[in-house]
Amino acid sequence: MADYVLAIDQGTTSSRAIIFDKQGSIVSTGQLEHEQIFPKAGWVEHDPAEIWRNVREVIGQALSKADLTRHDIASIGITNQRETAVVWDRNTGEPVYNAIVWQDTRTQDIVDRMAADGGVERFKPVVGLPLATYFSGTKIVWILENVEGARERAEAGDLLFGTTDTWVLWNLTGGTDGGVHATDVTNASRTLFMDLETLEWRDDILEAFGVPRSMLPEIRSSSEVYGHAESSSLLRETPIAGILGDQQAATFGQAAFDQGEAKNTYGTGNFLIFNTDTEIVHSKNGLLTTLGYKLGDEPAHYALEGSIAVTGSLIQWLRDNLGIISSAPEIEKLAATVEDNGGAYFVPAFSGLFAPYWRADARGALVGLTRYVNRGHIARAALEATAYQTREVLDAVNADSGVPLTELKVDGGMIANDLLMQFQADILGVPVVRPVVAETTALGAAYAAGLAVGVWSGLDDLRGNWQEDRRWEPKLDEEERERLLRNWKKAVTKTFDWVDEDVR
Description:
Strand content: 15-25%
Strand order of the largest sheet: 15-16-14-13-19-20-21
Shape: globular
Largest sheet: 7 strands, mixed
Helix content: 25-40%
Number of helices: 16
Distance between the termini: 57 Å
Radius of gyration: 22 Å
Structural class: alpha/beta
């Protein structure tokens, strides 16, 4: 039997292919960034055709670097940026518009319109989500209402919708020539359209949004064979057998399979997921109820999630928009030139505030400035913003679950920043733990795909692969921790109520 699994990680800034061995170790990686398109303030788009081209190329890169062929690959897993919406023509394979990215806020008017009858929590008891621009449902509506002819083509059954996992799966399995139009429960749970209990699309909610059911993919489990790579692919005939949204994939890769286990991913944004096992827990503290994973015919596992819109992308903004740094890793060195934030707090509400506030009217603010503050203080304030936002989400998780976390497993690109990880432990007051394999998002997708075809026999195999790399213990005294948090919360309030009739 082939011993390797290839994971396609279609992320917000890049697409990657990573090959893993049976020990969960990385064998090789291919990676390509794609263009970030900003047509207007608050609008964020990607070119789906570019993403698909890059996916094909990174597969070739990973196979070449490892000197492997399709015969060595047991299965393929897919993980993806979850709420980013693609609508395309089933007959031509051509997208009708760019992918509208999860960070995009253009659909606020649609959210307001839908919330006029029942408020932003109108559908939350069924789907676990408040009405917000974040989720893909409103993005589909925007395309149907604003792209010429889209509504008519959709009603005629000619248009398909998918998050980027579905887009990749459809193309990888043949596209217009028999491509599989499916998604898994974790991605479906981010649309505003899926019933958490039945794991099916809700016709009454689709009708309320005006979205034809014919556009939507079939909802499948996170670990099963959906189809095989088509004949022209380097991976032809290889089964595609795992799909997980990126944050659920990271949780799976961290081996957080059981109730009460959690992880926090530090990427473009931050996402903390807390496993509630087979119980649907409705948050009273600003968290989302979402699917954790579903393995084949086994019961679905649920989770609470705290979603933070801007963390790593704040560092990119300092690099690309302000030129304070020339590369992202420089932020740690610059922040280390000062002992503290100098009284400055940076609240990066570029897309409004997500959990636990859910304030679409908020916009970014840098507060507490004096003549004393310099580039180092701003760099430090930017890093600290990630830790403060995580603390607020963790407080919400603790309040909802009633079982305070005793340590936090972390993953994602920013965990290489030792200064940030130490401050995170300090502001949480609990240890922060980094695994040996930090690419847990791709690893989780690989695990789901490998389980479906027998590369791993069960979850105990995966637990055995997890290893601790480093642990940060809190060093800050409680009084100083509370002072910093008090000032942070004050800073957050300065971002409220910015967007109104005059400011969009």
